Amino acid sequence: MSYPASPNGAGAIRVRPDAAQFWAGAAATAVVAALIALVGILVSRWALGIPILAPTGDGAWGNAHTGEYALLAALAALIAAGLLYLLELGAPAPRVFFGWIVGLATLAAVVYPFSTSAPLEQKTATAIVNLILGIAIASLLSAVSARAIRISRSAPPAYGQPRPQAYGQQPYGQQPYGQPRPQGYERTEPVDRPGQPPLDRPGSSPTPPNDWR
């Protein structure tokens, strides 16, 4: 995102995310999302005895669906990071749009388990894990974006060059082409009055009155 130059000629301000810091934070967010998915499955199946994603006989970690769920959580974090990066590059108020998008996606992930034919306790446990994942991804990426911002300012005009004027503003003493000058700017010469001695003008000598002779 960039802002126009200020009227005092200080140069335009550009706000860009630092790519290295941002994507390092995005990768860390993906790892955290995968771990949240694994821990949520472990707590549900082992501590609470709710067999989500796999039957009870598959143990505390379940089957291959556990790994798929963790990979999907990491992929969702990376997709959200890419979306936030694009918003930071060009959208106004990027974090507001990002919060709405991730919030609505999290709501869809929370509601989806209740559309399946699984028991109610499994639906509830899966919805809670999805809710924690959405909150973690949104909060971590927002913090990463806030810390990875880089602000740069373009160089001001060189010495002797005119400073940029605001839109519609004219420099002092100059009028747009084709428009007459305002009243009071015309230069007038002194006018001689009848019966009065001639007024002094540059380059001429005054004429003395007759009684001086």
Rg is 37 Å
Contiguous runs where pLDDT drops below 50 for at least 5 residues = 2-9
Broad structural category: mainly alpha
- Main sheet overview: 3 strands, antiparallel
Secondary-structure element sequence?
A: EEHHHHE
Shape: elongated
Query: What's the end-to-end separation, in Å?
Result: 83 Å
- Give me the count of strands: 3
Instruction: State the helicity in percent bands.
Output: 40-55%
Mean model confidence by pLDDT: 76
Strand arrangement, largest sheet? 1-2-3
**Separate helix tally:** 4
Strand residue content: 5-15%
Concise overview:
48% of the residues lie in helices and 6% in strands. By secondary structure, the chain is mainly alpha-helical. A three-stranded antiparallel β-sheet has the order 1-2-3.
Salient structural properties:
213 residues; mainly alpha; 4 helices; disordered N terminus
Task: Give a written overview of the molecule.
By secondary structure, this protein is mainly α. Helices cover 48% and strands 6% of the residues. The chain is built from four helices and three strands. A three-stranded antiparallel beta sheet has the order 1-2-3.
